[in-house]
Specification:
With about 140 residues, the chain is α+β, with helices and mostly antiparallel strands. Helices cover about 40% and strands about 20% of the residues. This is Preprotein translocase subunit YajC.
Length: about 140
């Protein structure tokens, strides 16, 4: 890129300054598409996530607190979160992640029944002849 700038600066007359101007415009265009535009996309996605929150959605705050949305106050920009029965009030901007429609409930383990199958051996154990002789003594 520096070779292009040197070549543009070395150009004589008005033609050289015009090519330098084109290079500067291209540099600003590349900066816009690599730095500014992705930031705006991410900001729009976050705003859509915050606008799409509703009561009962599972959330995670920027501090790592997990809970369920109890109420949303749009005028004040606050959210009341139910974290295991404790109601906490946060700013909407403190919400990091929203899982729509997923409510946090305590999991009740299902009862499992264990069936034990008894197996019988068709043959009785064989008695060795040596054991019979020992018992006779």
């Amino acid at each position: 890129m520096s070779n292009l700038l040197l070549a543009a600066a070395a150009g004589a007359g008005a033609g050289g300054s015009f090519s330098f101007l084109i290079i500067i415009v291209i540099m600003f265009g590349v900066m816009y598409f690599t730095m500014i535009r992705p930031g705006k996309k991410q900001q729009n996605q976050r705003q859509q996530m915050l606008n799409g929150m509703k009561k009962g959605d599972a959330i995670v705050t920027i501090g790592g607190l997990h809970g369920v949305i109890d109420t949303i106050n749009v005028e004040d920009g606050t959210v009341v979160i139910d974290a295991d029965g404790i109601l906490l009030t946060f700013n909407r901007t403190a919400i990091r992640d929203v899982k729509p429609g997923a409510s946090v409930t305590t999991a009740v383990p299902e009862e499992t029944t264990t069936t034990v199958e008894e197996t019988t051996v068709g043959e009785e154990p064989s008695v060795d002849a040596d054991d019979d002789q020992d018992s006779d003594k």
